[in-house]
Amino acid sequence: MHRILKKKFLGPNLVELEVEAPLVAAKAQPGQFVIVRLHEKGERIPLTLADWDPEKGTIVLVAQMVGKTTYQLGMEYREGDAIRDVVGPLGNPSEIKHYGTVACVGGGVGIAPIFPIARALKEAGNTVIGIVGARTKDLLFWLDRMEKVCHELHVTTDDGSFGRKGVVTEPLKEVLQSRKVDHIWAIGPAIMMKFATLTAQEFGVPITVSLNSIMVDGTGMCGGCRVEVQNESRFACVDGPEFDGTKVNWDLLLARLNTYKEEEKCALEKYLAVKEAQR
Predict the structure, then answer these.
(1) What is the pLDDT, as a whole number, of residue 260?
(2) I need a surface site. Which of 24, 92, 178, 189 has the fewest CB within 10 A?
(3) Is residue 221 included in any domain, yes or no?
């Protein structure tokens, strides 16, 4: 059992949790994730590691409340409550080394997992350019953390309520036009990562993306997270989650993300209806 030590909302339907998980915290590296199961009959969901403290034996998770389990986590679980299972760290860590100048692009909840990558890249001696964005000001978070690990930080919102109006690929393109960038990391919605990849390709800059495909066990057994990379099937959980963005079949990934859209909608509606009836 893994106790929730701290919980706070970062924005509408966006929750940050500090959780006891000493074995995970001792081995965690940037780019990795955990599989969480809230209770004995709960589903297994992947959450990327946003931060960790080996000395305290804790990890930090940021979850967007979009499905039944993440809503249950945000609405029902309090500080002091226990999460049944936290399995990890899973996946291959980011390839951290000295590249020179790097850009770290985080979209929406992708700001959380891009943070430890940017921090590690800075510690490795890179010049780190951070670019983060969200639909609106209320969905931006951790700007203070990002400022500490980036040499410069660009912030966008779709509606212009904070920073510059637009999407993250716009400042990314401007940065690539103005200076030499040696590598790019991009984490966020699949469509955002696709267009970040197209921007990187335009300038011939290598780009690494973290794929958010459907995942169940996280150990390569179920095949649910199958993605096509360089015309071959790969499992995001054990072969990734990070891949060369230029080799990903983005159209297939986007289609597969909608596989259980109706079932997910139905499960959430039933859960919310039960919670409303209990009031």
Answers:
(1) 77
(2) 178
(3) no
